[in-house]
Design brief:
mainly alpha; single chain; ABC transporter involved in vitamin B12 uptake, BtuC
Length: 367
């Protein structure tokens, strides 16, 4: 009578390890990999939009003064989008950034007014107060999400209402318009090299810092790992709760920075002017290639994704098309971007990456 002994399975577990990205990916050339990158594909879409509007209105759209206006208008959103990229990379969401921007700006404006309202000393205190306010609300969000295990959607939706409500209570619903002239003259409307907006240079510094940190630091690696799989990240020693708190503090701190930039640009707190900011930023981040499912993030793609609605709005106004069509176009691009991400994600998890067109031709069948 023979007895059979069971041997341990040599099959690689396909749960957390696969989620963190350890499955074998086919090696592709640099050019082919670039063409398959969603950020590059979105850049081609942006380039096509620019070419079309330039052909339709060469004397008005295709001018440096117009491009400068587009860049300047997108700068504050770009600062917010860097933090949002990190949040969405962890498979989270932050709906409160617009309201945190408003709250931080209100607190900073009132503080600067109380200190006399002029001079770089007062302005520096206002900048610090605005950023610290954003960091506080980021800590608040991160703690409830990481330690309280409350879904990010619920926490940040609640914070959206709390911060906006507090801003209205503090001001009585009336915008604060006393902003130090040094802020508006140097940051809001200041230029370097003659025509480059200072506010855009600040945004560029934040973008570069965010991109380098995401790709080349342990903080960025841990952010990607948490978004891929919290369970796998914990198993390899990542302090997931602490990482989530730091990520939401980053988002809040950048919202605070955006608050002082907004004060500088508009010379007012603009309490009622940020109702769509969070949705615009989220759309730009997702369109740019950061996955809503977590584990994939790209700062460069985020910047490209932000410029699509900005260029559409500007181009529609110049060519005489109703700007409301911008919302239709951005919505269509957003849905397409999420679908492409879903196709790639499901194909990669099967170990059979398919191109989007092959997906359509095969009807979604496994290749």
């Amino acid at each position: 009578m023979s007895t059979s002994t069971s041997r341990p399975s040599s099959t690689t577990p396909a749960t957390e390890t696969v989620a963190i990205g350890t499955f074998d990916e086919p090696k592709t050339g640099v050019v082919r990999g670039l063409l398959r990158a969603q950020a590059f594909q979105i850049f081609l879409v942006l380039l096509a939009i620019i070419i079309v509007f330039s052909a339709l209105a060469p004397d008005t759209f295709a001018q440096w003064s117009n491009f400068r206006l587009i860049i300047q208008n997108a700068s504050i959103l770009a600062v917010l989008a860097v933090g949002m990229t990190y949040v969405i990379t962890t498979a989270g969401i932050d709906l409160s950034i617009g309201s945190v921007l408003v709250f931080s700006g209100v607190v900073a404006a009132i503080t600067m007014r109380a200190l006399g309202g002029e001079g770089w000393g007062v302005a520096a205190i206002g900048i610090v107060v605005s950023i610290l306010s954003g960091l506080f609300w980021g800590l608040f969000n991160g703690f409830l999400i990481a330690k309280g295990k409350i879904p990010p959607l619920i926490v940040t939706l609640g914070t959206l209402g709390i911060t906006l409500g507090l801003a209205q209570i503090i001001t009585g619903g009336i915008d604060v318009r006393e902003v130090p002239a040094v802020l508006t003259d140097s940051i809001g409307y200041g230029n370097i090299f003659g025509t480059v907006p200072m506010i855009s240079v600040i945004a560029l510094v934040v973008i570069v810092f965010g991109a380098v940190m995401l790709r080349f630091t342990r903080f960025g690696l841990y952010t990607l790992a948490v978004g891929s799989s919290e369970i796998a990240a914990r198993r390899v020693g990542v302090k997931v709760d602490s990482q989530l708190i730091r990520v939401y503090m980053l988002s809040g701190g950048l919202a605070g920075l955006a608050g002082i930039l907004s004060l500088s640009q508009f010379s007012t707190t603009a309490i009622a002017g940020q109702s769509q900011t969070n949705l615009n930023v989220i759309a730009g981040v997702v369109i740019g290639g950061t996955s809503l499912f977590g584990g994939v993030g790209t700062i460069l793609g985020t910047v490209v994704g932000l410029f699509i609605p900005a260029v559409l709005q500007n181009g529609f106004v110049i060519t005489g098309v109703q700007p409301f069509w911008q919302q239709v176009a951005v919505g269509a691009v957003l849905i397409t971007a999420v679908y492409v991400d879903q196709v790639r994600r499901s194909s990669a998890m099967r170990g059979n990456p398919q191109g989007l067109w092959k997906k359509f031709v095969s009807g979604g069948r496994r290749g």
